[in-house]
Amino acid sequence: MINDLIADALTRIRNAAMRKLNVTTLVHNKSVEEIAKILVDKGYIESYNVIEDGVKKTINVVLKYDENNKSVINELKRISKPGRRVYKGSKDIKRFKNGYGTIIVSTSKGIVANDQAHELGVGGELLCSIW
Predict the structure, then answer these.
(1) d(CA 14, CA 118)
(2) Which of 45, 73, 107, 114 is the least buried, fewest Cβ under 10 Å from its Cβ?
(3) Do 25 and 58 meet the contact criterion of CB atoms below 8 Å apart?
(4) Closest CA to 111 of 9, 40, 33, 57
(5) Is residue 71 within 8 Å of residue 14, measured between CB atoms?
(6) Closest listed residue to residue 93, CA positions, set 65, 69, 60, 127
(7) Which of 66, 108, 58 is nearest to 87 (CA)?
(8) Residue 96 per-residue DSSP state
(9) For 38-91, how does the pLDDT look when each residue is reduced to its tens digit (9 = 90+)?
(10) 108: left (phi > 0), else alpha (psi -120 to 50), else beta?
(11) Looking at the DSSP assignment, which residues form a beta bridge with residue 48?
(12) What stretch of H or E contains 116?
């Protein structure tokens, strides 16, 4: 049984990118689906779609590569873990890697990227970082 579905999803994406796979499958969860939506919006993955197989749902993620067949994702890291949660206020969530990276934040307004959380003026739990 998987306890941390977000960490499992990030690891699956990271491993698929290292193996140069085009598609990987994630275990479905609302928060994992929101993270996939942010990754598509920011241009780190091509697309995703939710597949229902009876009661079981999965998410197929299409990875993105540049013209040299190198993954667009340099680093994908879980920040807040089940044993150690990391929270930041709205004033502390600004830019990551001088704007080249993104921190995904779970706020009271939903799961958003760091720049959107700063615009909304809300803080929350830092889920993961990507660049």
Answers:
(1) 27
(2) 107
(3) yes
(4) 33
(5) no
(6) 127
(7) 108
(8) S
(9) 999 999 999 999 999 989 999 999 999 999 999 999 999 999 999 999 999 988
(10) alpha
(11) 61
(12) helix 114-120
Query: Is-contact 127 7, C-beta < 8 A?
Result: no
Model pTM? 0.91
Which of 131, 130, 102, 129 lies closest to 118, judged by CA?
102
CA dist., res. 30 & res. 52, Å (int)? 14
The CA distance from 101 to 119, in Å, is 17
Token pair 């150690």 is found at 84
Instruction: Give, to the nearest 10 degrees, the angle between helix 5-18 and helix 30-42.
Output: 40
Per-residue tokens: 25: 């499958």
C-alpha span between 8 and 67 (Å, rounded): 28
Give dist(CA 121, CA 7) in Å, integer: 26
Closest Cα to residue 124, out of 98, 97, 96, 85? 85
How many Å apart are CA 53 and CA 58, to the nearest integer?
8
Q: Domain tally for the chain?
A: 1
The CATH code of the domain that includes 91 is: 3.30.1490.10
Domain that holds residue 123: 5-130
